[in-house]
Structure formats: C-alpha cells, structure tokens
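Thread: quick sanity check before group meeting

JM: Hey all, I'm pulling together slides for Thursday and realized we never actually wrote out the predicted structure for the chain we discussed last week. Dropping the sequence here so it's in one place. If anyone has concerns about the input, flag it before I start.
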Amino acid sequence: MSLNFHEYRQFDALGLADAMRRGDVSRREVMDATMARIADVNPRVNAVTYLHPGAADNAALQAIDAQAPFAGVPYLIKDLHAPVAGMPLTHGSRLFAGDTHPFDSETVARLRRAGFVILGRTASPEFGMSGSTEPASTGPTCNPWNLAHSAGGSSGGAGAAVASGMLPASHATDSGGSIRIPASCNGLVGLKPTRGLLATGPHRGEASHGLSHEHAVTRSVRDCAAILDATVGPDVGAPYFTQPHPGGYLAALAHPPRRLRIAFTTTTFGGKAVDAECQAAVAATVRVLQSLGHQVDEGRPVFDGPTLGAACGTLLVTGLSASVAAREQQLGRPAREDELEPVTRAAIAMGQQVTGMHYASRFGVINREVRRIGQFFETVDILVTPSLAAPPVPLGTLSTQRLTLDQFQEAMSAYCPFTGAFNATGQPAISLPLHWSASGLPVGVQLVAGFGADALLLQLAAQLEQAMPWFQRTAPV
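JM (edit): ok, ran it. Output follows.
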C-alpha cells in the first residue's frame, strides 16, 4: 500500500508515529510519502537545501527504537547553529560551503533518540540575520500560501517545509524571533522556549549570550509540547539551566489553564500602529480569550525598545565578526567578495569597531530594560501581541543583497517589533496561526508568559487551538 498526500497530511508528528506503531502504515510508506512531497513542491518553495544520502534507506528506518515517541517520523534540521554528523552546516553562507562536523549537537542527538529520522537541512538566511529567508547561497524560500511572498526568517526553510506539507514538524532556531516569525508567515505553531530549557552544546555554551534558542515549528500544539519533552534538559558542562516542568509538557495539555490575567496590545511597544490585519488577529483572539473566562485588559510593558534592540544587536554583530574571523583562519585566507552578502559585510565591519568597554557596557543596558519588562509580568500571566507588524511581505522587502545596512535595520524594526525583546528576557513566547488576511496570508498572534512558564503557555495555546482550530487549513501550493 502507498500513503497518498491527502492521507499523509491528516497526521501531525505524534499521529504519524502512532499510526506506524499500530501498523496502520509502515515507516517505508511514511518516508516515501515525505520524499515524494519534497520532490513535488521543493522546486517551487525552495525550503530544503540538502538531503543526506542514505538517511531514508530501509536500514536507517529499521534501526529506530519502535518505542520512541516519534519513531520513524521524518525531520529536517535548520542550516544554522545545529551540527549533524556528516551533514554540511553552512549557516546560509557561501563562506561556509562544505563545512561539516563529525558529531551531532546534543539537541540533534536527543531528536534522534526520540525516533526522528533526520533527512537533511532547511534554508536559512545568511547567519540567520534576516526575517526573510533569501540567501545568495541557495536563493529565496517562497511562502507556500503565496509564492511571491516571504516565508519569514530565519527559520523560513523550516516554516515553508512544514506549511507545504513536506513533513509535520521541523527544527528551528530563534535569536530575535526566528521561530515565531516564520510560524506567523506560514500558519504554524512556533514556540521559543524559556532560556536554559534546552541544551546548547557541545559546540556552544551560552548561545549568543542567552539570546539564541532552539526548538521547532509544528502544525499542532501537542507536537510542540512533545518535541520539547524529547529535547528538554541541560547537557554536560551547560553554563546554566532552567528546571523543566514536572511531569512533562505534553502531559500538561491534559489540563486547561487556570483563569489567567491577560494583557494585550494592538500597537508596537512604542505605541505605533500596525497593519489592520494584525490588529484584527489580536482582537479576534481577545474575544475568544474573554469567552473562555480569562480576565483580559489592554496593556503592554514600558521599556526602551530601541535601546534594548541596539544593545542586543551589538552582541550579535560582534559574535558574527568573531565567527567569520574564525572561519577565515580555518580557511587560511580572507573571505572573498562573493562569499558574503553586502549587509553581512557591513554588520561585520560594525562588529569590528566595537571596543571591549562598549561591549561590556551593553550587558548593563540589557539588564535594565529586561527588568522593566519583568516587572510587567508580576501583574499579568500572559501578554498577547501581533507576531509581526504586517502579513508576510513580498520577497525582496528584507533583501540583504539590495539594501544598505541602515535600510535593512529600519525595515526589520518596522516588520518585526514584537519578538526580540523576549529573546533578551529569556521568556517563553509562542506564535499561533489564529488569523488569515483577506488575501489568504497567515497572520500569527504572539503569546508571552513569565520566565519558566512554558507549560502554562502551552496549555493556553492548546485551549486556543480547540477554540480557533487551524489544522485543516492547507497552503495552496
């Protein structure tokens, strides 16, 4: 028997694993359906940049523990930050072409132990810098809901792969919104977990000074929770860790959240208006939350967003400069002109000018603003915002090849004003697909909880999933 796409699309990742465990469908049939879908739609969306030879062979499928929660489920790893033994890791840059690692990161190793079959890589913008995935190295990733629009970034390849039906979930990373932005653009669930819940090693310690996180984009809240269960916890030598939820995150979904104090905003944190579709998405969500019995009032944290963003940006560009310098040393030569995109080169030059004193002073700035945000969450359980300031933008709007660095930063700040603050605070934040624009583009809603309250956030997400279901919506590609 073969598994056609319509049948394959009815399952989330846990559903596929259950079907294989029951014998309703074989691992081979699931993998054949996955590979057929990739072959069919990837030429149009350009989400998958690498497939590993032999990863889907029968021998690889038979070696999986049948009792693993995701036994036999296909999975892709983003081409950024996450080593997979023997697979190239280019960070979306021509400078890192051909670079490989001989080991799996701890998170990847845990995904394998959970039963996922890791097939290859999804696209990332160069060094994950952009909210749109359009690297010179592999070309733009298109939004499955409208191929002329962005799939988001920096996990745009992951978002497009899941939204186009290649597979039910995919690995993603987030240093300023890079899980939540593509989740919003592609009509998916995208959680940035609390800082310290997941392992970052052995190749990284405090990932981007605590700004960077790993997790997934999924079609269901339960997959999001179960993947978190499979990967949660510190690795050996971790600089710090956050205590996971007792009993697990998937189990927490069996219980609805208590009555919550919820604040919402339909403007940016600086009070600027956003697209009417994004306002409508929040308004519709607020009405449902009120109908569910929660206390919902308008409000937002008061902090200096531009100053916080600039301070975090200083840490990120100096880290980028150091990474590129290390690669140049490894190659024994400077980067060629065609190996780095114009915005990247400008960001590297900026990072090279940062003095040690200025660099160290940024931590005090971040601490001040983070604590102001933290005070807000002493009075509310959840903050609801748009995930983005507009529906998915046309490709080219956030080009790292056409724009100057100043133009690029201005465009990013205007489009993605809601996500980065919570990389700085380390709080859990999730984008849910709760609205579609009049033209049929997904519009996500972001929910933010207090530090360590991932289980509460997932409980509320599951409650909204039941009240405002999205699973049967499919991208026209």
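AS: nice. The chain has a mean pLDDT of 97. The radius of gyration is 21 Å.
JM: adding both to the slides.
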